[in-house]
Each structure stands twice: as structure tokens, then as C-alpha cells.
Write a sequence for this structure.
């Protein structure tokens, strides 16, 4: 019997994966999409409730919590690119990126629980605990989500298939955040029995367990079909190749701005409803308070936006859609500022339409990141999917941190005092941070797309050329 060496076998497998241009199965699309649901069980929870938890439940001042959310991003500035470089150089029987879904899921779950443990320390002790626990959970998020996002670039060599998978990703991302926004307030109240700290602690346990199971499902149902040449370049060469990618650089800034806008608005919802609409937290619809109902309707809008994206991209250039949707979102946010506190239904409608446009934008954004990976490989000869995506992920995490921190600074600047009747000045600040602040970020991000250089025809030519190169290799 002929013995085949490991190197020969790996080469044959790589050739097979590289030449596999067949459409992805429904099972694999769903499996990949579920991974972002697991991510959003945490990130959606943090975006909606973490600032409120720190200020109104755990007793940290708004300015201190906001500063913490920003300062801890220094760690991400290092950890995200490092994780991308590590993933690009990983060799295992499961591929480069998939193994991390298996290995990191449990640490990710445990550190999420630690974040809401809420030990009864002094004011300084609580702040130190917040710094440490938030930094650790963000490191775990990096270790699992950078490879997860990198997997998108190698799941298929066909740009159209990656766009379809991206749609599934953000449909399930929307569903994950929708589950959080609709159920979390109810679970916190029910499991806490009047003790919000206890309620947050038990609620995050449920989402942690679900996250582990779902990440393992994603691992089991996906494949890496594109097997680029093993990275033999230096870190400096990889970064040099990345920085030459102008389209990627524009997307990074767009990603920061849209996430700042979204998270600033979402982090403001609970304050807007509690202090501007003067809502007591009583049930408004079924098991949902007004906060939960407003958040949930917006996320249903995001879900429909993700679902509509393939239809829209079949008719329009991606960067044109990005420009249109961002500007439209900004206009809807400005309109929200003038809605009376008594006209809650109109507020829900405008908010939902705005988040619909974000559903299109975020789906396009990650699809365009993978386009930039292919453009980078085509123009420089170096495939840096992990580094490209990890650097992009840092921009999104940085945007998330800034978006979560800005409302804290605005609250402090306008004289907000937790759990008290607010002054007119404080209420005006809450209205600004809920409406005008995010509108500015969405408007600027839309205008940036005027400089994006990749269109459908260019990408088709790049894809065909890369397939020929890989086949020859």
C-alpha cells in the first residue's frame, strides 16, 4: 500500500478546497450565521445594558464608567492584530480559524459571567474590578471572534457566496440582539426578584451557556475551502501589505463611525425611556417594557435590513448603498429629536426604520471586508485574511467602546444623577445623545464612501484572476 505523506495530503486537501466553487449549503450558511448570534448574546447585552448596569446598578459614576470603556481599548489595539497574525499562521486538522470556536467558547462564557458578578467592594474596588473583568472578557471576545470573522474570508472563493453567508450572519446577529433586548429586562426582573444585581448575574449565565453551545454548532457545520499559501512573510510585511489597501482603510473608518453611532443610541435607550419618556418600567406590550419594546422593534428592523441586502446589492453597487443608507439613517435620527414624549408609536416607527438601514450597512460592511481581503491578495500576493479582519474587528470594538462611553460623558457633562428626577438640562443632554450625536456619525460615514474604490466589475476580474493563480499554485 502506498504511503502518502502529511505534506502531500495537506497539499491535496488545499487544492480541493481552493477549487471548490460550489454554492454553500443551507446548513452551512445557518451554521456560520449562528456564530454571530452567540457573539451578540454578549455584545448586544453589553451595548444595551452595560453602561446602565455600571451607573444605576453597580454604583460606578457615569464619567468613570465611560473612561473605563475607552481606556481598556488600549489592550484591544494590541490583542486584535496579534490574534489576526496568530490565526493566519495557525495549522491544525480543522484549519486556521475554526479551532478557536472550539477552544475559546468556555473561557468566553466564564468571563462574561465574571463581568456581572458584582462583588460588594469599595468605590475604588468596584472600578478596579470593572477594568479587570471588562478587559478579560474583551480578550476572550477577540480570541473567538477574530477567527470567526476570518473564517468568512475562506469559507468560499466566490464573492457572491460570501455575501450570502454574510446575510445569514447578520440575520442571526439581529436575532441574537433581539432576543437580548426583548428578554433581558424581563429575565433581570424575574430572576432578580427585585434585586437588579442578582438579576443581571443570573441572566448572563443563561446567555453564556447558549453561547458555548452555539459556537460549537458553528464549528461543527462549517468548512475552510480557501487554503492560501502558508504565511512565510514577516509581521512588518503583512502590515505593510495591509496599509496599502486603500479601500480597506476607508472601511475601517466607516466601521468605527457607524458602530459609534449605533452603540451610542442603543446605550442611550434605557436613559431616554426612563428619564425623557418618564417611564416606570411597567409592562407595555406582553412581557416587554417600553425600553424592551423600542429596542426589539428596532432590531426587527435590522433583521429585515439584513434580509433585504442581497436583493439591494443585486441592483446597486455596494458602496452606493452604503452612502444612501447612512445618510437616510442620519435624517431619521434628526426627525426623532422632534418627537413628543407622548408620541411613542411614532418614535418606534422612526427608530425601526433607522435600524433597518443599519441592518443593510453592517451586512454590506463585512461582505466588503472580505472583498478587501481578495483585493489585497491580488495586489500584493499576500493573503492576510486574519490580520485584515482582526484590524477591522478592532475598529468595530473601538467604535463600540467610544459609542458606549460617549453617553456616559454626556450624562456627566449635563449634570445627570442616577435614579433621581433629572433637570431640564440633563434631559436635553439625553435627547442629544439619543438623536443628534449618532446622526453626525452616520452622516460622516456615508460621505466617506465617496472615496471607496472597488466596484462589481473590478471584483469579478480579481476573483477570476485569483482562481487562476490558486489553481496554478
Amino acid at each position: 500500500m502506498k504511503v502518502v505523506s502529511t505534506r502531500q495530503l495537506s497539499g491535496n486537501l488545499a487544492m480541493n478546497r481552493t477549487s471548490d466553487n460550489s454554492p454553500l449549503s443551507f446548513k452551512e450558511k445557518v451554521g456560520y450565521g449562528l456564530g454571530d448570534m452567540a457573539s451578540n448574546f454578549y455584545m448586544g447585552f453589553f451595548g444595551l445594558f452595560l453602561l446602565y448596569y455600571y451607573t444605576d446598578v453597580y454604583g460606578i459614576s457615569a464619567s468613570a464608567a465611560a473612561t473605563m470603556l475607552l481606556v481598556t481599548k488600549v489592550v484591544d489595539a494590541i490583542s486584535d492584530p496579534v490574534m489576526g497574525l496568530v490565526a493566519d499562521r495557525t495549522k491544525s486538522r480543522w484549519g486556521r480559524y475554526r479551532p478557536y470556536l472550539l477552544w475559546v467558547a468556555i473561557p468566553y462564557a466564564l468571563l462574561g459571567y465574571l463581568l456581572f458578578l458584582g462583588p460588594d467592594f469599595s468605590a475604588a474596588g468596584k472600578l478596579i474590578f470593572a477594568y479587570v473583568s471588562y478587559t478579560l472578557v474583551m480578550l476572550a471576545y477577540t480570541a473567538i471572534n477574530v477567527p470567526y470573522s476570518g473564517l468568512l474570508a475562506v469559507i468560499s472563493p466566490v464573492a457572491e457566496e460570501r455575501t450570502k453567508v454574510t446575510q445569514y450572519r447578520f440575520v442571526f446577529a439581529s436575532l441574537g440582539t433581539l432576543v437580548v433586548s426583548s428578554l433581558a429586562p424581563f429575565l433581570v426582573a424575574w430572576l432578580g426578584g427585585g434585586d437588579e444585581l442578582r438579576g443581571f448575574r443570573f441572566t448572563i449565565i443563561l446567555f453564556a451557556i447558549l453561547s458555548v453551545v452555539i459556537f460549537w454548532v458553528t464549528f461543527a457545520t462549517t468548512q475552510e475551502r480557501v487554503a492560501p499559501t502558508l504565511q512565510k512573510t514577516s509581521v512588518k510585511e503583512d502590515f505593510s501589505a495591509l496599509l496599502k489597501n486603500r479601500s480597506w482603510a476607508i472601511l475601517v473608518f466607516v466601521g468605527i463611525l457607524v458602530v459609534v453611532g449605533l452603540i451610542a443610541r442603543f446605550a442611550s435607550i434605557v436613559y431616554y425611556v426612563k428619564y425623557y419618556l418618564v417611564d416606570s418600567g411597567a409592562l407595555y406590550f406582553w412581557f416587554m417594557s417600553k425600553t424592551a419594546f423600542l429596542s426589539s422593534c428596532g432590531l426587527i428592523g435590522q433583521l429585515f435590513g439584513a434580509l433585504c441586502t442581497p436583493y439591494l446589492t443585486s441592483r446597486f453597487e455596494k458602496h452606493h448603498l452604503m452612502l444612501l443608507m447612512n445618510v437616510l439613517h442620519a435624517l431619521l435620527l434628526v426627525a426623532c429629536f422632534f418627537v413628543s414624549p407622548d408620541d411613542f408609536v411614532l418614535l418606534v416607527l422612526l427608530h425601526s426604520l433607522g435600524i433597518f438601514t443599519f441592518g443593510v450597512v453592517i451586512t454590506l460592511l463585512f461582505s466588503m471586508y472580505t472583498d478587501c481581503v481578495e483585493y489585497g491578495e491580488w495586489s500584493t500576493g499576500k493573503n492576510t485574511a486574519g490580520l485584515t479582519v482582526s484590524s477591522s474587528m478592532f475598529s468595530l470594538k473601538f467604535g463600540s467602546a467610544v459609542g458606549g462611553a460617549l453617553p456616559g460623558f454626556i450624562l456627566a457633562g449635563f449634570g445627570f444623577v442616577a435614579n433621581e428626577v433629572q433637570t431640564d438640562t440633563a434631559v436635553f443632554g439625553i435627547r442629544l445623545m439619543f438623536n443628534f450625536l449618532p446622526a453626525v456619525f452616520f452622516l460622516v460615514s456615508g460621505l466617506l464612501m465617496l472615496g471607496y474604490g472597488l466596484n462589481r466589475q473590478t471584483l469579478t476580474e480579481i476573483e477570476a484572476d485569483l482562481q487562476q493563480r490558486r489553481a496554478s499554485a
